[in-house]
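Re: the 255-residue chain
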Amino acid sequence: MTGTPGVALVEYLLRLGDDRLVLGHRVSEWCGHGPILEEDIALSNIALDLIGQANLLLGLAGREEGAGRDQDSLAYFRGEREYRNCLLVELPKGDFAFTIVRQFLFDAYDVLLTEALQQQSVHADLAGIAAKAHKEARYHLRHSAEWVIKLGDGTPESHERVQRALDECWRFTGELFLADAVDAAMQQAGIAPDPASLQPRWQQRVEEVVAAATLALPKTGYVQRGGRDGRHTEHLGIMLAEMQSVARAFPGGTW
């Protein structure tokens, strides 16, 4: 799968696009169900940002692949084993605390990744997409970090819920920083950074917010992984069945 730099690039772009498409869909599940009107609108806008980024990244992956697949084909006509998102983003939305904690952990990573891509990538199109995404990721991080602190340092119930969410999400974060042959090829070509190089700054930012929220950082435990290789939880297939239902029922349909 990684025999040539071009194949590795397509694989890497799919990872970036799938992370954002799947997370954007999960966040969109709050549309009309937010705890307050302002937050309902904020989460809907975040979902749109993520899906917009996915649209650009999957479109670029299709062009680099050169097999005639565009972003819609890649989004709606791949099965779960063909998706390359990390496991963290596919977990069910849970309660508001879970959504916020998951978003914060991803946002803290996303800010660092998009910053590195826009500043260092020799791939002009990817660097341009990353520059746009970085502006949105900075807002996403500010929003999710503020909510983690509000909930953690809030009522006993909100504190307990956000701590439980942090405990549940933590074992999925290690996958964000595990490098494989695709990452090595991208680093060697000057297209993307080594994901492990992002972890120290991510850890520092997470620890700062967790401390301000009066939460306890979970002890490092077993790392759940497999999403980058197409090995997912049972939740992704259910989500894709819903997300892809209209496109598969009316293939080639336009509105």
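Residues 40 and 222 are 34 Å apart (CA to CA).
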